[in-house]
Structures are given as structure tokens and as C-alpha cells.
Design a protein that fits this description.
By secondary structure, the chain is an alpha/beta fold. It has 2 domains: 13-223, EAL domain (TIM Barrel, Alpha-Beta Barrel); 225-451, Orthogonal Bundle (Hypothetical protein af1432). Helices cover 47% and strands 10% of the residues. β7 (194-198), α9 (203-211) and β8 form a beta-alpha-beta unit. This is Diguanylate phosphodiesterase.
């Protein structure tokens, strides 16, 4: 993950541009089966010092041979430079990235640094479309870059000009006239376009556009409590809750063994975890007691907490959106609180628990407060989840803003969480996403769900 650095007035040209760094957040995109199939990258562009930003008129934004790049072009290059860094790639966990592109990004050859197979270029409807831009889009298309017509609410002149060059159309269902959606979807599907519905925060909205034939879905509808049990967990919920309650009381190995034996699915997962995640080298765990000792109660607790969110279908954990969101949020909270003064082991554990259980009502429904009481969580954790109180509540608000790419609220919250900065928040968010995305393949995470 990259961070933002402000240039001094003496830093110009290539050396100064190396200090222009953008920040990024990610937002999940789901397919028709409700599984992750991509991420939109939310960008916080670097800001040039006022003197440099005003040095050349905006009208000269298109590069000319032999002339130094305009400020907007330098910012565009900084964004591209950040997108190809390893921390951004790691947070994508193998999924394609959807990223807004400006005119400056499109016209600059720096965009060729982006691998065409890993990026979908989103064309906002605010683009100034002329012959030069269309020629450039055609040229990039010939290099296998693919385009998304973004932020569509209803057809307009820009929509008509760009539609022939877009493979995908993203419709903002919050702002688009509802009466227009069926016809718009029908016409675009008939034209062979893949449709993305953006701005979905309720299950009913998802179901409506799913019925219209949309192919991809963006929004946090999947993390909201549902009126019906639309998700299946990989083990009975009561078994997971009982195990979590036991783990909260510092159990003995014998107590854990007895509780786990009540559910063969949990035993199977724990045996797989102990044997496949590198916890033991040159030795195969053959008994449940050995698996408990090899794994340790702390890791068993985290494994059980995240397993609450795993979809019961036989899917890879890195494709399960709710589990990935919960795991990413929990890891972010843990990493972020370590940046704050006087944060010890207890505070770190509490931060992880706050993040991981902030979505528990999406699994169990009913009263969030009652579920948190059943889990015997401490009062600071419950206050953070229910009312966003305390340092844990502030960090929870920060990660929620990050999930939406809401940079101004993040900046305001960071003023209350000194020395944590916006740049660090973005960096930690991508690090947490990368951790969650490989959690089923490392000694620090989960086993793949295959029951």
C-alpha cells in the first residue's frame, strides 16, 4: 500500500514525482452466485503544493513532446505508479481491479504499466470526450485493455459516445430512475454488455436487479442482517457459539477436546488446520488432542470466530465476501491499534474481536446486543460495536469509512486517533485485505471449507 507525501517546492521533475504517492482502498464486487469476483479501487489522489498546481493552466493538460508534464498528468502518473505496487496487488488476492481513469491517465503512456489482464478501466460519465480520447481508447483496446462505462444513471451524450467501446456498464441503482432500470438492462444485455449494479445496501435491492439479469453487484447488502437465513455456515451455529463461550473462559485441553468431539465438522476442520498450515513440520497430527496442542487456543479461537462467517457452500474462503470483509476488518483493527500509544496484548486482542464480531448480526439476525451478550464480550467491545464508543469505536468507524473510500471522514477521525494518519489507514487496510485473502493457505489463518 502506498501513502501520500507532499512535495516541497524544490522537488520538481522526476525526483519530485517520485514523492507523489496515492492512497487506495478496495470495495468488493460480487457475481450472480454471491461470490467475490473483483474489487473496485477507491483512490485518494496526491495533492500538489498550491504553487505547482497553479503553475500551468488546466487547458494544457494533454502532454506535448519536450514539455514538462502538467500537474494533472503528474498526479495521474502517481496513481498508476501506486496501482502496480505489491501491496495493492496483494490486496486484490487474485481478483481483477476496477479503477476510475481520468483523461490524463488515458492519454499518458504510463497507463501501459497496468497489466491489461488485471485491470478494468472505468470511464466516468464526466469525461470530456473528443476525437483524441476516442482514438486513444481504441488504441488501448487493441492492447487488450477493457473498459467500464461508470456511474451511469440514464443515457446522455457522453454515454452514447463511450458505449461502443465499453464491455461493461456500471449503473448506479441508487440514483438511476427505478422505472428506467428494466428497459436499460434489457437494451444493454441485448447489446452484449455485462452489467454491474452499484450502490446496493439492501438485500431487496440486490434481488430486484438480480431478477433483471445484472451480472455483477457492488455494495454491502451481503453484510446486512437478512429477514431469512440466506447463508449457511459450515458448522451448526450453536456448536460454534458453544465453542466460543468455552474459549472465552481459558479452557483446559480436555475441555476443548470434549466440546469439539460434539461436532465432527469442527474436528475435521481442526485436524486439517493442524496438518496443512505448517504448524508441525515432519510430523502428522493424528489425534484431536495433538491438533489442539499444535494449534493453540488463541488460534483455535480466531479460527472459530471467522468460521462463523464462512458460507456453507464448497467455496474457497478468498471468494466468500462476508468472511473476507469480517477478516479484513478484524485484522485492520488489530494492526491499527498497535500504532496507538499504550496498546498492549489485551488491547490488540480486543481490537480483533471488535472487528470480527461487528458483523455477527448478518449471520444470526435478531438483536445484535443479545448476540454479543451470548458471546460474553467485554463492555468496551460491546460499546464499540453498538454505539461506536471509545478508541475501539473510533477505529471501527475508521475502517467502515475506509470500506467506502470516504477519505474526508477518515481524515477527521484520524485527528482523534493521533498519531494514526490517513496514509497509514489506507496502508493497513490493504495489508489486512492481503492477510484475509490468503488466510486459508497460511499458518496464520484458516483452513479451506470442504465439508
Amino acid at each position: 500500500m502506498t501513502t501520500i507525501a507532499v512535495e516541497t517546492q524544490s522537488q520538481t521533475g522526476a525526483a519530485g514525482d517520485a514523492q507523489l504517492l496515492a492512497s487506495f482502498a478496495r470495495q468488493p464486487i460480487l457475481n450472480r452466485d454471491g461470490m467475490l469476483c473483483g474489487y473496485e479501487i477507491k483512490v485518494r489522489a496526491p495533492v500538489l503544493p498550491m504553487a505547482e498546481a497553479d503553475a500551468r493552466p488546466v487547458a494544457n493538460r494533454d502532454a506535448l513532446p519536450g514539455r514538462p508534464p502538467a500537474p494533472a498528468q503528474r498526479v495521474a502518473r502517481a496513481i498508476v505508479r501506486g496501482l502496480v505496487q505489491s501491496d495493492v496487488r496483494g490486496a486484490l488476492t487474485g481478483h481483477p481491479a476496477y479503477v476510475d481513469v481520468s483523461r490524463e491517465m488515458l492519454l499518458d503512456d504510463g497507463i501501459l504499466q497496468l497489466p491489461a489482464e488485471g485491470f478494468m478501466l472505468e470511464l466516468p460519465t464526466t469525461l470530456e470526450v473528443d476525437d483524441a480520447l476516442i482514438a486513444r481508447i481504441v488504441q488501448l483496446y487493441g492492447r487488450r485493455y477493457r473498459f467500464v462505462l461508470d456511474e451511469v444513471t440514464q443515457p446522455n451524450e457522453t454515454f452514447a459516445k463511450l458505449l461502443p467501446y465499453a464491455d461493461v456498464v456500471k449503473i448506479d441503482v441508487e440514483r438511476a430512475p427505478r422505472a428506467l432500470l428494466p428497459k436499460l438492462a434489457s437494451v444493454l444485455k441485448s447489446a452484449g454488455k455485462l452489467l454491474i449494479a452499484a450502490g446496493l445496501d439492501a438485500q431487496a435491492d440486490f434481488e430486484a436487479v438480480h431478477e433483471l439479469g445484472f451480472d455483477r453487484f457492488q455494495g454491502y447488502f451481503f453484510a446486512r442482517p437478512q429477514s431469512s437465513a440466506s447463508r449457511r455456515v459450515s458448522a451448526p451455529r450453536h456448536a460454534l457459539l458453544n465453542l466460543l463461550q468455552l474459549l472465552a473462559g481459558d479452557p483446559t485441553v480436555a475441555q476443548l477436546e470434549a466440546e469439539l468431539k460434539l461436532n465432527p465438522v469442527l474436528v475435521m476442520h481442526l485436524m486439517k488446520l493442524a496438518n496443512s498450515s505448517g504448524l508441525v513440520v515432519g510430523y502428522k497430527v493424528t489425534t484431536l488432542r495433538e491438533a489442539i496442542n499444535a494449534t493453540g487456543t488463541d488460534r483455535i479461537a480466531r479460527w472459530t470466530q471467522l468460521l462463523l462467517y464462512a458460507d456453507g457452500r464448497k467455496v474457497a474462503l478468498e471468494d466468500d465476501p462476508l468472511l473476507q470483509l469480517a477478516a479484513t476488518r478484524a485484522r485492520f483493527m488489530e494492526l491499527a491499534i498497535e500504532r496507538l500509544p499504550e496498546a498492549g496484548r489485551d488491547e490488540t486482542d480486543a481490537a480483533f474481536l471488535t472487528g470480527v464480531f461487528s458483523f455477527v448480526d448478518a449471520v444470526f439476525g435478531g438483536s445484535l446486543e443479545n448476540t454479543l451478550n451470548v458471546l460474553t464480550l467485554s463492555r468496551p467491545i460491546q460499546a464499540a460495536i453498538l454505539r461506536r464508543e471509545g478508541v475501539l469505536g473510533l477505529l471501527l468507524s475508521v475502517v467502515e469509512a475506509l470500506e467506502n473510500g470516504a477519505w474526508e471522514p477518515i481524515a477527521a477521525l484520524c485527528e482523534r486517533l493521533s498519531p494514526l494518519t490517513v496514509q497509514e489507514v489506507a496502508q493497513l487496510g490493504l495489508a489486512a485485505g492481503a492477510w484475509a485473502g490468503v488466510a486459508d493457505r497460511s499458518a496464520h489463518g484458516l483452513e479451506r471449507i470442504e465439508d
